[in-house]
Design goal:
about 350 residues, globular, alpha+beta, 5-stranded antiparallel beta sheet
Length: about 350
C-alpha cells in the first residue's frame, strides 16, 4: 500500500485505541462498544487497512475475509478526516477516498489474497447520514434490509426444557439445513458457543439459538426524547433493569429456529435463555423477510423495551463485482452486529 495507508493482518495498539474510543451513530442513538479489545481478537481472517500520519492512526477499516465475500467489521475515522470544511481538507479527504476506492478494485482483482473478492458488505443505520454518504462515495448500494427486534423481560421465566450446548457439532446439521442457502451465510463465528435448545419429551431439539453476549456504553437512546430518557433511566422502575447506560449488557441471538415456526416455543426459548444468562434483554437482528420472524412478530409479547423503541431498520450495503441474483434472505451473524 502507498503511504499514508498500511495493510496488516493484526491490529496495532494505535488501531485498538481508535476502535475502543469510537462512538457509533450520529443523530438518534449513540453508543460505544465496551468489549472491542476482547472481541477484535476473535475476528475471522481479518485485514486492517489504516490511514496513518506521524505514527498516528487517523482511520481504520477492518475486513473479515470470508472467502470471496468480505465483511466490513469496523469503519472508524477520526474527526480530522470526517470533517468536510476547507478546500485543503476536502482535497486530502478526496485523495483518501480515491485510494480506498482503488483498494476495493485491487481486491476484486485478487491483489491481497489468493482468492479474488466478489463482494464487500456492511450494515449501516439508514438514519446515519454520514455513513450513508460514505457508502455511496465508495460505490456501495442497498441490497437488503434488516430489522432490530428487542425481546425484554424484567423477570425472565425458566424452562425445564432448556439445554445449554457447548459443541457446534451437536447443532450444526440443523443450522446448516435451515440457513446454509441464505445470502452471506458463513460459519466462522457460529462455531463459538454457547447454543441453547429446547427439548421435547423424546429429547429432540424443537428450538435453537446461538448467542453472543455484549457490553455497550449508551450515550444516547434512540427517539426524539432519547437524550433525556438516557439520563432518567436509572430512576425509572423496571426500565432500569433493562437499560444500564454506563454498562449496558444484553444478548444477541442468531441461527434462531423453532419447530413449525412456533411463536410459543420462541418466547419460551428466549425467556429461558435470559433466565440462564441472568440478563433481561436481547436484540435480534434478522432479514425483514426472515420466515420465522414474519410468522411470529404479531404473536409474541416482545416486552417493555419494544413498546418504547419499537423496531429499528438496518440497511445491508454491498459493493459487488457482478449483480447477485439470489432471492434468499440474508443471513445475519450476531457477532457481526456488535
Amino acid at each position: 500500500m502507498k503511504p499514508p495507508f498500511q495493510l496488516r493482518e493484526a491490529p496495532t495498539a494505535e488501531i485498538l485505541e481508535l476502535l475502543a474510543e469510537t462512538t457509533l451513530g450520529t443523530s438518534g442513538a449513540r453508543y460505544q462498544h465496551l468489549d472491542v479489545l476482547e472481541r477484535i481478537h476473535s475476528a475471522d481472517q481479518p485485514l486492517y487497512l489504516s490511514v496513518e500520519r506521524a505514527h498516528k492512526v487517523l482511520g481504520n477499516i477492518t475486513f473479515c475475509c470470508r472467502g470471496d465475500k468480505w465483511y466490513i467489521r469496523y469503519f472508524a475515522f477520526r474527526s480530522s478526516l470526517q470533517a468536510t470544511g476547507g478546500r485543503k481538507r476536502n482535497k486530502k479527504n478526496g485523495l483518501a477516498r480515491s485510494w480506498i476506492t482503488q483498494f476495493f478494485e485491487d481486491a476484486f482483482d485478487g491483489k491481497f489474497q489468493d482468492q479474488k473478492v466478489d463482494l464487500f458488505y456492511a450494515y449501516i443505520d439508514p438514519k446515519n447520514e454520514r455513513s450513508k454518504s460514505m457508502s455511496v462515495n465508495f460505490g456501495f448500494h442497498v441490497a437488503g434490509n434488516l430489522v432490530t427486534q428487542s425481546f425484554s423481560r424484567v423477570y425472565p421465566k425458566a424452562s425445564s426444557r432448556i439445554r445449554k450446548i457447548e459443541r457446534w457439532v451437536e447443532v450444526s446439521d440443523e443450522i446448516q439445513h435451515r440457513f446454509s442457502k441464505y445470502q452471506h451465510y458463513d460459519e466462522a463465528q457460529l462455531k463459538t458457543p454457547p447454543f441453547y435448545v429446547l427439548l421435547n419429551t423424546s429429547g429432540e431439539h424443537i428450538a435453537c439459538a446461538h448467542i453472543t453476549k455484549v457490553r455497550w456504553k449508551i450515550e444516547r437512546l434512540p427517539g426524539k426524547f432519547g437524550g433525556i430518557l438516557t439520563k432518567l433511566v436509572p430512576y425509572i422502575p423496571f426500565l432500569r433493569s433493562l437499560i444500564k447506560p454506563s454498562d449496558h449488557q444484553f444478548l444477541v441471538p442468531d441461527c434462531v429456529w423453532t419447530k413449525d415456526d412456533n411463536s410459543e416455543l420462541l418466547e419460551e426459548l428466549f425467556s429461558a435463555i435470559l433466565f440462564e444468562e441472568k440478563l433481561n434483554l436481547m436484540l435480534w437482528w434478522m432479514d425483514k423477510n426472515e420466515p420465522l420472524y414474519l410468522g411470529v412478530k404479531n404473536k409474541i409479547n416482545w416486552g417493555l423495551l419494544h413498546k418504547i423503541i419499537g423496531v429499528s431498520p438496518v440497511e445491508i450495503v454491498v459493493r459487488e463485482k457482478k449483480p447477485t441474483q439470489s432471492k434468499q434472505p440474508f443471513f445475519v451473524c450476531g457477532w457481526d452486529m456488535v
